[in-house]
Amino acid sequence: MTMKTYFPKSNEIVRGWHHIDASGKVLGRLSTHIADVLRGKDKVIFSRDIDCGDFVVVTNAEKIVLTGKKLEQKLDFRHSGYPGGDKYTTYEKLMAEKPERALLLAVKGMLPKNKLADRQITRLKVYRSNEHPHAAQFAKKAVVGEEKK
């Protein structure tokens, strides 16, 4: 008796919505969890070459914690494309001005380096405070759950 491997088709994939409150959570551990949900690793139908992940909404990004001396020592590197156009920013300044970017960079670094990751990172929505415009998606999820009962 041979077993067949199941490969989900793109129209069979059901995408859920996950809300994560980042208050007091460590940047690396939080971004690992987010990357797993974006890839769909928590699903039974996971396959590394198929985009089967869910949407993730992260709130309170300004309250993310970095351990050790990372605030002073860790640097964000950007380059303009011109000679001498490199720019370094400490995470202390980055977390004060753009905490969303710090989380986005951490999650993007944990996704595979291919075209699939470009589609997966678009499903990540990061907000500095507790307010976000995705309340309708979470309300719809609750209604669907009530219909199943």
Detailed description of the structure:
The protein is α/β, with parallel strands linked by helices and 149 residues long. The chain has one domain: Ribosomal Protein L13p, Chain: A, CATH 3.90.1180. 38% of the residues lie in helices and 15% in strands. It is built from six helices and five strands. The strands form two sheets. The chain has a three-stranded parallel beta sheet with strand order 1-2-5, with helices on both faces. Helix 3 crosses helix 4. It is globular.
Q: How is the topology of this model organized?
A:
Blueprint: E1 17-21, H1 27-39, E2 55-59, H2 70-73, E3 75-79, E4 86-90, H3 91-97, H4 99-110, H5 115-121, E5 124-126, H6 135-148
Parallel strand pairs: 1-2, 2-5
Antiparallel strand pairs: 3-4
Helix pairs in contact: 1-4, 3-4
Low-pLDDT segments:
144-149
**Measured distance between first and last alpha carbons:** 37 Å
Strand content range: 15-25%
CATH class: Alpha Beta
Please provide the ordered H/E string of secondary-structure elements: EHEHEEHHHEH
The count of DSSP E runs of length 2 or more, i.e. the number of strands, is: 5
Characterize the largest beta sheet: strand count, sense, and whether it forms a barrel. 3 strands, parallel
- Percent range for helical residues? 25-40%
Q: Give the overall form.
A: globular
**What number of domains?**
1
Assign the CATH superfamily.
Answer: Ribosomal protein L13
The third-level CATH topology is: Ribosomal Protein L13p, Chain: A
How are the strands ordered across the major sheet? 1-2-5
> What class, by secondary structure content?
alpha/beta
What is the CATH architecture assignment? Alpha-Beta Complex
